[in-house]
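Input set for joint prediction.
Command: fold jointly, output tokens.
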Amino acid sequence: MIVAEAVGRALAACGVETAFGVVGSGNFHVTNALVAGGVRYVAARHEGGAATMADAYARMSGRVGVVSVHQGPGLTNALTGLTEAAKSRTPLVVLAGEATEVRSNFHIDQAALATAVGAVAMRVSAPEEAVSRAAEAYRVALGERRAVLLNLPLDVQSAPFEGTVDVPAAPPAGPPALEVEELARLLGAAERPVFIAGRGARHARRELEELAGRVGALLATSAVAKGLFRGSPWDLDVSGGFATPPAAELIRGADLVVAWGCALNMWTTRHGTLITPGAKVVKVDLDPAAFTAHVPADLGVTGDVARVAEAVAARVASRQGYRSPEVAARVRAEGRWRDVPYEDESGGGRIDPRTLSIGLDDLLPRERIVAVDSGNFMGYPSMFIDVPDEGGFCFTQAFQSIGLGLATAIGAALARPDRLPVAALGDGGALMGIAELETVVRLGLPMVVVVYDDEAYGAEVHHFGPHGHPLGTVTFPPADLAAIARGHGFAAVTVGGPGDLAGVADWVAGPRDRPLLVHAKVTAEHGSWWLEEAFKGH
Ligand SMILES: Cc1ncc(C[n+]2csc(CCOP(=O)(O)OP(=O)(O)O)c2C)c(N)n1
Ligand SMILES: [Mg+2]
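tokens >
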């Protein structure tokens, strides 16, 4: 066995289930070894797609995502996806060939690249390290929630490996935090507590609902945990720019905000304005760095969200808190965006993006998994297309890159084959990530790709247009996205008004043997309300 094979076999033995990549000479053997070890390998068409697929797969499956790339350009192509994963603390291992000979065309400082974007760089420097380094990369990715680049120098890769592929067991979880008494005291005294659950709470619905029920807390999430409390009568859905008017008001009314695995960034708090001055803020997080980030915490509790919530629940008495019948009635009547009245602006061959999103919400099966790209349009699917739970929404937006949405939907679809994958994209993001349309068809995914087409980088149009700047650099002629999709093997419908949604209904009722692209020509007279919020941060 050569070193490359030992690395692949070791990762398979660690429990890797699916790997994504683009194969070249420098990662050929390690990828084949993954496959030989029982790992499903998914070929992407661009390394950026592969990295984002692995990221989304990891988020939706709870497993470590694995990416395999060629040295040099294979890694640079993957960088945007790797950065998103690093910022999102997704457990990810990137296997990359490495040309250590400085005169090689493929040579770059790969370790420096990785650390520059927040990933951890490791290297198999000698044959005898093959298994221990692979296991270490896996352990750091999973245990510390890091994106790890494992460099595989070409000369070391091809050397013989003499040892056995035996990987050590993962260490047990740490003990719960000591600050639970203080959190229990604060919750016991709060009149109007609100819980905001983030990425670090996606595994802890039961424990949080139990505690919230005792202390009378209302429930909200950050965007990445959307759906976590779906079905609860106290669910305010997403806190921040996507919050409904009553949800925003109720969050502002809190006298205690407990952020669970959630740093309370500018998006989640509308630049801090959703937290009323004087309200106490508590953060529960594995990483104490979260306590001082963004809105600072009055109290930080270090530990796993589920364990801390359990420990606190054992120390508090039952009280009504924020859960009055009036609040319940309000959440029931106005808690969803589609209950908020609006004037439908569809007309002239274009559909109002709200009407489009509500129409899709009605037509698409409820067991769905929605992935959203970045851009002006992004709030429409996030706010109007409902999801069944936290496993129904995948939001790769920590780096705010456009073009990740389609690959996100592919990775999410592979993690949850029981659900209909829905990719919601702008025309700009769709054309940027278009390399993976063929991947959707090749994998036979029954996906619905919705393109909110305003023939522009709408975010920029609405950012600069009101100030009278020329917009020629951010507007485009019409592109026939339906024809492009058909060319890849998709079914496609062009939607220029509510009546055209019948084509979507036909696809849903049919055999769904091909993915569907919905080319929606959307109205674009004005920017979205959440975008105005975002521009404050630019
Ligand atoms: C990789 C990358 N390039 C550029 C940007 C800047 N940017 C933010 S939104 C946007 C426009 C996206 O256009 P589209 O996907 O059509 O969505 P729309 O804003 O029109 O709804 C651009 C170019 C970015 N965020 N990421
Ligand atoms: Mg656009």
